[in-house]
Amino acid sequence: VQLVESGGGLVQAGGSLRLSCAASGRIFSITTMGWYRQAPGRQRELVATITSDGSTNYGASVKGRFTISRVYAENTLYLQMNSLKPEDTALYYCNAIVKPNVEGYLEVWGQGTLVTVSS
Fold this sequence. Notes:
Largest sheet: 7 strands, mixed
Shape: elongated
Order of helices and strands: EEEEEEEEEEE
Number of strands: 11
Helix content: under 10%
Structural class: mainly beta
């Protein structure tokens, strides 16, 4: 199972970006998907998650500015980021809890996509 992120880049403060994550491989189902980020010298932190029934959870620093969404039939995940701030600069990782078959779960991480917000 692989997760491939895209959509990162350089944007000015106040701007917007949309990240995408595509899951591929042996997938029976996916439960929770989410975005995490890691800035230089800091620990990886939660950005947002979305469950199989559509329940969402956001980190306090992005609530009201970022929106997570998911296309279940295509195993894709999105993150719409608005009102970006320099402190949003980080490597953004896609995460998924995958059932590759009827039994068992697998946690998968993408390679990350870099978001840089200039002031």
